What we know:
The protein is α+β, with helices and mostly antiparallel strands. Helices cover 36% and strands 17% of the residues.
Amino acid sequence: MLKKYDVIVVGGGHAGCEAANAAAKLGSSVLLVTMNMNTIAQMSCNPAMGGVAKGQIIREIDALGGGSGIVSDRSAIQFRMLNLSKGPAMWSPRTQNDRMLFAEEWRLLLERNNNVDFWQDTCVGLCVKGDTVEGIKTALGITIFASSVILTNGTFLNGLIHLGEKQFGGGRAGEKSSTGITEDLVDLGFEAGRMKTGTPPRVDGRSLDFTKMEQQDGDSVPSKFSYGDTKALVKQRPCFVTYTNEATHEMLKTGFDRSPMFNGSIKSVGPRYCPSIEDKINRFADKDRHQIFVEPEGWKTVEIYVNGFSTSLPEEVQYESMKLIPGFENVKMFRPGYAIEYDFFPPTQLKHTLETKVINNLYFAGQINGTTGYEEAACQGLIAGINAHRKLNELSPFILNRSDAYIGVLIDDLITKGTKEPYRMFTSRAEYRILLRQDNADLRLTPIGHEIGLASDDMLERVGKKQEGTNQLIKAFRAMGVTPTLANPVLLDKDSAGITQQVKLSSLITRPHISIEDVLNMSVEARELSIELLKSHPDIVVQAEIQMKYQGYIEREEEIAKKMNRLEDVIIPETLNYAALVSVSYEAREKLMKIKPVTIGQAARISGVSPSDIAVLLIHLGR
């Protein structure tokens, strides 16, 4: 009934959508198999995209030609650039999104691609011949054949929902879990584990008193995620902030004896950086309050997401506790929060392409690899989709280094170090974060995306204009001079020392507290040039400022990256017998045999492998 496909993607979440979109845009025939066609791209948890480090990932996905940035812009109800008080390496875009519109936009984006077919069914197993996947088996008793399979199962693999003392199977509230795949994979030799995540209650916004909360508006001049032709917001919806208190905490504690977090029902590890409210008040007993972010679920709905109140306590305890939060005195609850345990597969069982080491042409992406977050899942789906297509067409693997992108950091962390708790991206995980900024993702990655056929000609042309205009403005600032008469009034107003002779404009940009706007106020000629260049690309002035102000730091980091990347060029033969390297420590040999690093650079990042172990490897390889 169904033809053989190039790629079958199992799961219609963020990873699955990006995987199907990427492989299909590149020319592969794709079948997206999902348990429910109405929940494609469902925002299972908070209705937001981006944030610290996560916003950089969405920009990178967009720069490569993926869909998450476009869909986020089209469904945004608020935009904020976080961390503007810090350096540009920390600036992180974030949107608040209309949950229903987000899902609709993703589905429409996929439906517009004629290479994507859909099938509503549950995958219950894999078809494997020898060491190569050949397709999937479904709950309807159908076998669907494909040259490659990408598993993006989210929290559905043997999902178990916890709500107080109640437990029931499910991959998400109101949706059944998926069984069979884990068992198949374990039989094939994969190692499996369990993880836990949770979600807060949703409430009726009509029952809240927002006058008792702090209003949190979007940026006065909102930007957007995509480097393409999506539109920035003209109007925005506000969010709000309120706080728990000691009364809230005391009420929450009355349910601790029935909490699956504390009574032993939940045995797996949850996300360290997104703890439940009961975990927060237990671990941080010295804190008398915790922030609660009150986030609307869309333009028109009254449903509110209670961010910061993730919980699996009994529903009556959740309700009584929320009533003690300012503004929530008359709250009506739509849905209680809950915790969910699910199967994952330690990602050290993958290659950098996200293809499994055990079975050829089988790829894992998203929470199946132990990550948490829409953005982390989406970028994995993108890379898996690209590589599934490229392998089928006998093209070289598509791998981003740690100095190329946050996506490269995330994947290398996963397959080299593994994870025993839900992995979340932070700027601190990237050693080259001055290079990997959100403002230059297009300059870094769009040429690469275009080369592999994913980023469009228009995207490349737009990046070319940005690069050309930035270089032109920087060159002009290095050539144009400014006199003390014109410069000192501005400098002194900014508490910066005046100049005694004419200097180049570029030298003033590097001063603390002096912005490019300040310098433009000193020079009519520079102002006129910047206005002219902005006609070709809106980001030229900001990009020029960052590159001039942080030139020394950028060049230093580029040099460090080049030195480290030399180790990435030293390939380790697959046939290398680590057990015979007696000069390498036992722990290192054990780790190296398990991970099987491809390069010396990757080997050096494995926990337990010391510099002396690397020196022995280099000598053994004739280096």
